[in-house]
Amino acid sequence: MSRRSPSSSPRVLVVGINYPPEHTGIAPYTGAMSRGLARRGIAARVIAAHPHYPDWKIKPGYGQWSRSEHLDGVAVKRVRHYVPNPPKGARRLASEVSFGARSTVSRWGSPDAIVVVSPAMISSAMAALRAKALHRSAPLIVWVQDLYARGMAETGQGGRAAQALGVIEGRLLRSADRVVVIHDRFAEIIARDFGVGRDRITVVRNWTHLAPFPLIDVSASRERFGWKPDETVVLHTGNMGVKQGLGNVIDAARVVEHYRDPVRFVLVGDGGERARLQALARGVGPLQFVPPLDDAAYAAALKSADILLVNELAGVAEMAVPSKLTSYFQAERPVIAATDPSGITAGEVRAADAGLVVPAGDPEALRDAILELRANPERAAVFGANGLRYRRTVLDEETAITKFADMLYEVTTR
Question: Which fold has domain 218-393?
Answer without folding.
Answer: Rossmann fold (3.40.50)
